[in-house]
């Protein structure tokens, strides 16, 4: 199978990648360093300090969302991996299933839930929750204000990208050889120590790939902010979209922002993976 | 490992509630008699009836399914071929190819979309084409293939190199040997890759948004343009139907798999029973 | 290698050669790109019945997005409906085709006062579709103080209840008017002052919206926000608590006109469509559906009296005198608008 002749099978795709992956990225680079009339410029980068706030905001919110995804996703994946065979299949199915419903629609549905006059507030009003709340805290509120806040945007990101955290962690934990755990138990480790010393280190690669799969779409989202942020929380995705198809046409600036975002994300990921590899080695030793 | 306790059950329940609350809302309001998103106005099937008369939504659904099926099919074939090619390469070119292959997966969707849009606009200056279904399809193929490759490669690595050679030694031509020996072995990976590719295509909005041009719309794009005012409950109705179809499919697959597993286990038990019992005895 | 290039080329060719899905350029089509919620879509069937030309219809949220889409080069439209100031920008940047008015005989029905407008002085590029004003729409059940001017949008008592325009020209424009400046000021300090005001406003805003305002005001999720007169008439039908105010400081009067973008594939069809839109029947249907004010004399005549005399759609001369239209701004000010708008949105 591993014959030289078979290498030729890769050629069409290598060409495809060159044309539809590499060339487009080169175009981004070209656009980022040129002006409207095609002459070289660094202005697209030198004006970028204006957008430091957006960069900071995006990375912060994406980090928060990723952290929450780990906090929710890790235990979920862990409990699922410990479930019976039957349950596992069903649970995995239940995690995949929402992805088949358009994410815009699910996010929009959150809007109906979170609004001041939305379903959650209506439900709480109907059970007289706010009377109780006001009685205890001495406040005078009729609803919780949730929509159009950075919190709602984070919720949207966690909601949409949680499966991408659960799946890799689950598949890694599931593959852990049960004999390794038994060995640790036989050697006298209690379940907490087994988790600390065996399960958790072995599951780290899953966590790392989960982080990548949650962080990158979070940092670059532009739809969730529009629906759940009321146009008041701007993220890098919004900024880029605005320069290409939105309200402030400037593909050169948009390309420059994309390029910087790409590089910053790549650096983050490289650092994280280096860190992760270090962990793995330490664990093997 | 220990079975799950009360806490873990509760935790799982809450997370699933979180995942399904908006879907539940969506389904419930697809049966609403009024247009409201939050006020229940009585039960009705009007939106389902209207859905099938809405040419915009049905057309977009058709485009979405068509592009997803074609892209997944092409990506599966091309991706499997490419995976075999990569597998046969020497280490250094393979690492390079795999890193490029990873780009569409690790890059933000918006960057992939925008960069492809720049390419299509750029190429449009020299070639007589406009953005439309074709560019949409190219974009989908481009982001689908990496998933197929990543799904097939591990199966190739698990493959016993000897069986392919054995088949050839027995007189099978390269392709026949591949079809009869290799393909069945890597098939789970291929199918899995195809499923992921199809899911990715169906679910995609961002890349389509930048590459479909002005006259082609996928379902996600129609929904996006609706969010600018208000999503029509017809979309809820459509999503409910799609949800039920997928749910039914997954259930069937799940039950079949469970049955197969059971049968396989029974078979294995039967086969292994006499010997293993004896083995166990001796061990004791 | 040849294979994959060939596949790619074949795919691209499929696009021009009437491939799968939404193909273009074949005879008998017209690609229309309009504002959202801005037409009675049922008239397309009449147009097709009369001419045999199929209508492909798409919508955009605001003038600036329309501009980006056309500039981006990926779009192909035959009829677009930008507003006045955007038309003059597009004329300046050579983005529009000259119309053949021989194919648009119904142009004669256009109100003469709207012919040869400032944005298209020789009237070679555009045919007015609708006109209207911008004002404040508010829910009388929730807003207890009288609403007379823009100050109501800057009233922190209504924290969390106020909506604002999600496009730079309308948004910054309101702040400029509130401060007593012109919409078309080129004084950078005035524009910055306006944006500073908007930044302050942001702390008690519910959100920036365009057409979502229908849903939010009709459903009572928000209490007050600025939008177009015609849309108020539509919203009022589903929520009678809503009221309209044309601000005393003055407001924006706009004309949206039909144009053909440069290089349109179906120019003759586009002119036929524009002509059709100027018929009395189509004009009446559109007025009824969207509530905007018509530039067509025959349509205005045929409208019921209560619509004709509705001061929201057809304000008095004295009210109109307070209004100012947008004009195209010099390039450096347009760039300032973009960067200032980003400054606001990235607070």
UniProtKB/TrEMBL annotation, chain A:
A GO BP annotation: transmembrane transport
Keywords: Cell membrane, Membrane, Transmembrane, Transmembrane helix, Transport
CDD domains the UniProt entry points to: TM_PBP2
Cross-referenced Pfam families: BPD_transp_1 (PF00528)
Membrane topology listed for this record: Multi-pass membrane protein
Domain ABC transmembrane type-1: 55-272
Membrane-spanning parts: 12-34, 54-77, 89-108, 152-173, 194-216, 252-275
InterPro entries found in the cross-reference section: MetI-like, MetI-like_sf
PROSITE patterns: ABC_TM1
A Gene Ontology term for the protein's cellular component: plasma membrane
Keyword field contains Cytoplasm: no
Superkingdom, natural source: Bacteria
Keyword Transferase: no
Xref: SUPFAM superfamilies: MetI-like
Localization annotation: Cell membrane
Record-stated family: Belongs to the binding-protein-dependent transport system permease family. CysTW subfamily.
Protein name (database record): ABC transporter permease
Organism in which the protein naturally occurs: Lawsonibacter faecis
